[in-house]
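ugh ok fine here u go
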Amino acid sequence: MEQTDVSPIWLNKMERIALKLRYGDFNIEHESSLRKKAEHLYSRMSEEDKTSLIGYHITTGLFPPAIVKVGEDMADADLFDVDGNTGGVINNQISYFHRYLSYNRIFQCTFQ
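structure:
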């Protein structure tokens, strides 16, 4: 991949590498060397490639967002229901300051 041009096939391979780094199950030494190679390959991608959907998958695979732990502050953002509305019970996280906000895997939330 280091000598070939960046193409849709190249991006698909890069996406698989990034997802393996994010979700893979392998030893630390192999992960470290693979991550260095992947970050070097990532630097070859154009800004247009990085902002595409597959580029987003590659970026989040190589540089995953921070995970908020219990008791830590999290960024405030508007919360929407399944119809895209912000009214009613769901509006933004600051309304639930010092309350528990839990998300499940399909992005539904419950307030306690």
